[in-house]
Design brief:
Order of helices and strands: EHEEHEHEEEHEEHEEHEHEEHE
Helix content: 25-40%
Largest sheet: 6 strands, mixed
CATH topology of the largest domain: D-Maltodextrin-Binding Protein, domain 2
Structural class: alpha/beta
CATH architecture of the largest domain: 3-Layer(aba) Sandwich
Bound molecules: 1-O-pyrophosphono-5-O-phosphono-alpha-D-ribofuranose
Distance between the termini: 31 Å
CATH superfamily of the largest domain: Periplasmic binding protein-like II
Length: 283
Amino acid sequence: MSNLRIGLPSKGRLSDLASELLKEAGIKFRRQNRSLFAKVSDLPIEIIFLRTDDIPVLCAEGAIDMGITGSDLVAEAQADVQTRLSLGVGKCRLAVCVPETMEIDSPAKLNGLRIATSFTNVTKNYLQQHDAEAHVVPLTGSVEIMITLGIADAIVDLVETGSTLAANRLKISHEIGNYETILIQNQQKRHPELADRIVRRLEGVVIARGYSLLEYNIPKNQLAQAEEITPGFKSPTITSLEDSEWCAVRVMVKTKQVTSVMDQLEELGASAILETPINNCRL
Ligand code: PRP
């Protein structure tokens, strides 16, 4: 049987993120001069570089076994693929957006309007669910200027920070869904063991990126309260210290919460509180 094929975005921010993630998971390859193909060293895997929006369809059709793409693009392509893992990056919302001065108090009020979007399928489904009939203008980009150009009354577009909307004097009227970067797999599941190993490896890197290892000493009579502050991923590791009234705790804490957790532990009487980054993990 041929090698397992993974489709990665060929350019842009997602291309760099995906390549970095695979490399951190020990799936190493060298892409030569914008070549569309690379061989992974040590594993029977080929990397194919593709347009991000083609990856869902190519995975559903079996041209690639797995792929990294946006869940928004999978929804829009209505691709029959399995989502294996959320990669913790590329989080965004798809929303109906209107001029700052316009009020649309319910999605049904979109009835009769012209809506420009590159997400025509998702938009049509949304309108149908809300019993609204609108004229959907299909585009592939620069959707945010279409109201100014006079060809749409509203748009459906991705919103990440909101700065594109603000720059174009638009606002969110209604949210359609939340999306992020995901790892998908073809339903035939060729090379199942290797595919599962890729999932486990990537999962280890994704979890490690979100957590830090926190170590601290705490008086035993405060341990129960400390454990409430730091319950850990599964449960904290407790070891005894020479001073029988104290113990040491090792626990995973969400990196974003580490400083506030350290404040709370210190207030409780903990000492020698140390944060260490986690490079990789298997839980
Ligand atoms: C997306 C989207 C918006 C922008 C939103 O475009 O279409 O234009 O990001 O991000 P913000 O809320 O942080 O401003 P992207 O940069 O992915 O390129 P595209 O125009 O090719 O879709």
